[in-house]
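Subject: sequence -> structure tokens, single chain

Hey, anyone have a minute? Need the predicted structure for the following. Not urgent.
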Amino acid sequence: MDLIKRFRLNHHSRIALVGSGGKTTLMFQLARDFGSRVICTTTTHLAVEELKSADQYLTLENLKDLPGSESDLTGNIIVITGPEGETDRVIGPSSEILAALDKLAKTWNCPIIIEADGARNLPIKAPAAHEPSIPEFANVVITVIGLSGLGKPLNGDWVHRPELYSSLVDLPLGSTLASEHLVKELISPRGGLKNIPEKARKILFINQIDSFPNWKAFHSHMDVLLSFYHSVGFSVLEDQMLLEVHEQIAGIVLAAGESSRFGEPKQLLDWFGVPLVKHVAEIAIKGGLSPVLVVSGADHDAVSQTLQGNPVNIVCNTSWQAGQSTSIQAGIQALPETVGGVVFLLVDQPLIPPKLIDLIREKQSRTPSAIILPKIEGKSANPVFFDRQVFEELLQLEGDIGGRALFEKYPPRGVPWEDSASQMDIDTPEDYQRIRFESGSEG
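Reply:
Had a minute. Here:
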């Protein structure tokens, strides 16, 4: 399923699984996807039957029983728990042993996956006062929910602790669960976000999408979800299918040049009643990019004044004379760590439609790539998406060169596009007048 790459996990990950609707299945799928040594454990309980998915299973009640050398164990998936508690269920190790497992994983250079919540095999739940039990060392928390309960009544057949859930989402018992109710619980500090360590990476894993044909209803909530979670995945774990992973995608409008050939600042040209730079920034916003940064330079003060009051961040590139690479770097350095990638737009291309940006973001959610761009009659076009995996290489660019310098190393994935007029750019006053005339009031 490639969960490791899609969720940006690594051997230093300390992953806590909370929520409902497939946590144990997800734990073992993650462990298999790592393809190397993984420690799996719990702070709640696991069914004895589920332990069959381990390559090796250890019960620890004393620190002295902690394994030492990695070579003492066979297989990759090592499950370590406390003793049996309820019938056919084992409990988690003590907090002292959990802390020791964290140190052991550092020695072995391997991840830990912890099931930190219980849901009695129901798809939806509300946490009790003592839940979830997330270790302090967890740096990734995956909140799981199953859609088999969507569209069903809010009762004990579908929801673990239905009374708590009813209070949390302000929905009477027995009422039909809709997507907005699930979202309300998922973004609540008393629900899906409860007890998550402040610096942990937060992932929402929406499972069982095959049970609800209208699962894309969640797309309308994506802006809200991505303001609380670093990424949102849609999956059918039983079929080992991860259909989509959404992340916050930023937009950077490159607007630092002095427009020497044009004769006046192109950024400030009138575009049907608004300055050109504002128009292009609005394209980025309408295309679902967030945050949107405008990199200014030669005319910083005027551009800043023009954009005052707009929902964009202005980044001043004081080295703009050294070429486009400096604007790319200024923009990348100003991005929050939460973004999964960025789409670059040029201030002198006013005809890029928001729909094209939507298509690029959709392509990335389904078939991720380091670089994605439109393809018009087989030729590369703008705007261009860069995944955060290449940010460090973008920061190494020099001179008047853009991200296309990385195309040979990272062959771009194409999005078919037919509108060649969208690529028209304003280089001269004649271009400006022609493009305005041809675009008309639709500009």
